[in-house]
Task: inverse folding
């Protein structure tokens, strides 16, 4: 689908070409395939498809954890177009241990560049639990704190989902605070429905390779069977760097 986009600016800190654009008075983030930097562990030119696939999975689950995302023909060619979300990074932080907010979960302790002790911690709420399971399902390899936006009403969105759906275990996230806890029954029910609908969902089969679909189905089945939040893989770094 070709769309008329007005480019407002570029996100200079993005690892791939990402533009703030406007369409019919609404702002979006446009990421053209032509601006994707090749990655050694992902087929070239597939990140936009993965961004769209992440939104499709979020919609099939009924979880609304990914902003609406389309594939469009824009000013720099085919790419993903994701609704701009007005949100802040308030659910995850790196702080001195004595400043961890009440009720938050500590993920790890470390030291900053001045050798001061710090801790990575995140909030404990249903929205983050849902996002943590979503990332385990899509095998998100880069869930930084800066990729978790919280809106004024407390809803959490996960953005920058292009490094997902790899066939190998790649889960790398800041949301490790729920390790080995039971997955909520309502999420299990949603995962079971997702597994039932996945084989017949034509768009996902068009967006992803067949072996990626197969592994997605396996991950869904494993989450339903094990019924606990996953633990990090020993073959892959558990925490993204930089954290933000």
Result:
């Amino acid at each position: 689908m070709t769309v008329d986009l007005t480019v407002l600016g570029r996100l200079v800190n993005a690892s791939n070409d990402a533009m703030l654009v406007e369409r019919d008075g609404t702002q979006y983030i446009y990421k053209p395939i032509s601006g994707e930097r090749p990655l050694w562990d992902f087929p070239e030119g597939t990140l936009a498809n993965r961004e769209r696939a992440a939104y499709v999975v979020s919609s099939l689950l009924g979880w609304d954890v990914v902003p609406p995302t389309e594939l469009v023909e824009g000013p720099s060619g085919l790419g993903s177009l994701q609704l701009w979300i007005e949100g802040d990074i308030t659910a995850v932080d790196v702080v001195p241990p004595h400043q961890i907010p009440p009720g938050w979960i500590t993920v790890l302790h470390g030291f900053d560049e001045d050798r001061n002790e710090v801790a990575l911690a995140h909030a404990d709420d249903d929205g983050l639990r849902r996002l943590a399971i979503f990332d385990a399902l899509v095998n998100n390899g880069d869930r930084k704190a800066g990729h978790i936006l919280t809106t004024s009403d407390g809803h959490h969105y996960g953005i920058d989902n292009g490094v997902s759906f790899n066939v190998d275990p790649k889960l790398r996230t800041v949301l490790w605070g729920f390790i080995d806890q039971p997955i909520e029954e309502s999420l299990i029910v949603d995962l079971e429905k997702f597994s039932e609908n996945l084989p017949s969902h034509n768009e996902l089969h068009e967006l992803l390779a067949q072996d990626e679909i197969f592994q997605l189905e396996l991950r869904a089945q494993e989450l339903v069977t094990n019924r606990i939040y996953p633990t990090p893989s020993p073959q892959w770094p558990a925490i993204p760097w930089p954290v933000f």
In short: The beta strands are 6-10, 19-23, 26-32, 69-74, 77-83, 92-95, 105-111, 117-122, 148-150, 156-158. The chain is about 25% helix and 20% strand.
